[in-house]
Amino acid sequence: MADRHAANLQSSSDVSSGRNALPVIAVTTGEPAGIGPEICMAVAAAPDIPARLVFLGDRELLVSRAALSGGAGSVRGYDRHARPVPGDVEVLHCPLKRDCRPGQLDPANAPYVLDTIDRAIAGCASGEFAAMVTAPVSKAVINDAGIGFTGHTEYLAAQTHTGAVVMMLVGGGLRVALATTHLSLADVPGAITREGLDVTLRIILRDLRERFGIAAPRVLVAGLNPHAGEGGHLGREEIEVIAPAIARLRAEGLEVEGPIPADTVFVPERAKSADCVLAMYHDQGLPVLKFASFGGGVNVTLGLPFIRTSVDHGTALDLAGSGRADPGSLVAAVKLACELAARRKAQ
After folding, report:
1. Quick check: bond before 287 cis, omega within 30?
2. Do 262 and 225 form a contact (C-beta atoms < 8 A)?
3. I need a surface site. Which of 28, 137, 186, 191 has the fewest CB within 10 A?
């Protein structure tokens, strides 16, 4: 970490103004009983990350997990106007509601998890942070605390009053976006509409252009039903909903193709010619991407007013506190956030 920062220290005025400064990226440390705190401390020690990382979480918790990370530096409080200290890990302290043990979920700490996310949102909205990266949370324990929570993606949309966002995972040479996210499979067909697909595809195309720098993006759209409905014999969503939404965008000259049967949309020759595949539901698209990239995939929320990336895995309670958790996906998420932030700054 010292090598990463040594040549990049700025005066406090440079840090606050952004002149010649590294991007300041907020990293929320996730469910305290999971692997989030320790993989965050591993990322703090990772080389070649072109950013000033600020970890949001309980300071004592992170100190206790730093020993598991393989060499994170000393932990100190974050001061946005102060000069970064080489080798130090900057922590924006959000206190736990109750002491926790690795692997043991406690609903009492659900508000703590949301506190870290809310502080990162506020910092991104104000310009204090150039992006946010999120470690995994437990949706179940947040709901057990009586707080309605279906996932980071939906929570970020609600907190920022964003009408529509899109969940996209990146890894293994693929980008896979989702038309629906965390829904019961029985609810998926009713959630897919022409209007919804139109909005989703426009967000994907816009962010591929503006955030990923792809001048003329091409998106493949999967069908919902087996064989993309087999001409209506296995379902009519392709005929009545998906194809008309695609036709409207194609009439505007946008590169959108489909509906394509989900069992062939990821055939390598076809997938490599596209910049993104839009799957109709969570477990239609993500198993393919995770097979290709698990441990190195990145979740990106498109459509937000700021950059947000995350890991492609859960809290791994069985590994928490063991020192064996792989930080690869979080490292990849941080590096992609750095790349997107740098491109945004250059625009």
Report:
1. no
2. no
3. 186
**How many degrees, rounded to 5, is the angle at CA 247 between CA 241 and CA 248?**
95
Q: Which of 302, 249, 310 is nearest to 117 (CA)?
A: 310
Report the CATH superfamily, name and number, of domain 1-162+305-347. Isopropylmalate Dehydrogenase (3.40.718.10)
Q: Domain 163-303 is in which class?
A: alpha beta
Q: pTM for this structure?
A: 0.89
